[in-house]
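Hey,
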Amino acid sequence: MSLSESVRIRVPASTANLGPGFDTLGMALSLYAWIEMKEEDRTSFQLFGDEMKGVPEDKSNLIYQVAQMVFEEAGISVPELSISMYSEIPLTRGLGSSASAIVGALAAANALIGSPLPPSKLFDMATNLEKHPDNVGASLFGGIIAAAWDGSHADYVRIEPPADMQTLVVIPDFQLSTSKARDVLPKQLSLSDAVYNISRSSLMTAALASGRLDLIGAAMRDRIHQPYRAGLVPGMARILDEAPNRGALGVALSGAGPTLIALIERGDERIEALQTYLIETMRNEGISASCLMLEPDLKGVQVLDSLQGTSFMDMIRGEVIT
């Protein structure tokens, strides 16, 4: 099997859970990471952007490690790689930075060797690494993903996001590890809380699939993870309670947090005031934060055309500007 000279990919960020769909629902977002991968005589790394600070630049790098898993699965040896990466996805903020790196590495390595592994196999490999399918499924396939993982295989349905739905994310200026956010969760749940979440997760999935934006507020509520994580994110409890009355269709902790995501209706005249409210609520808790308006990403991970003579960063500048 012949190798491509080099491959470049773009992979979107993601938000997981969407409130009640814990480890089950995910949506891709219009915030991206780019990876270039090629075979070389020795392994080297070029990592660009503030979000890459502190990332390993040796063979312990996650991108390199995941690429080797692809090569091993395909029965091919590519021990030395040149890897370049630029990301605008903030690390450990609840926007799927690790999932995007995993999916990007899988897609780039697979494309480099002629794409012998089907998307379903990449999804299983990604879920096995991430241990839940929501973020990786969204970054891989784009749109909204409802998925289930049995420990070896992930089944999923991709839902096209409603055309009138956008998102507003408020990103606090501190990091929150997924492990810390999981440590606060209870080991057992009451039957009533389980039924509460099953009903709302089902309603959320149906509302998104059918474009019923009017049901999102009722559907996006949760009892199994957000009440326990609220203490880790100052201002979160207030925002969950108040934002739906200030222009949000619904609001939730994005993944393990600390980012919060509000689903909004395109063109709603209250969006600017909602953005101000989110920032000021965080500021009143002594937390600086930034707000981004993001679209649902519809494409998922993409193998890009490598323009001859165009450097990796020049290509990204063109992508970001256009």
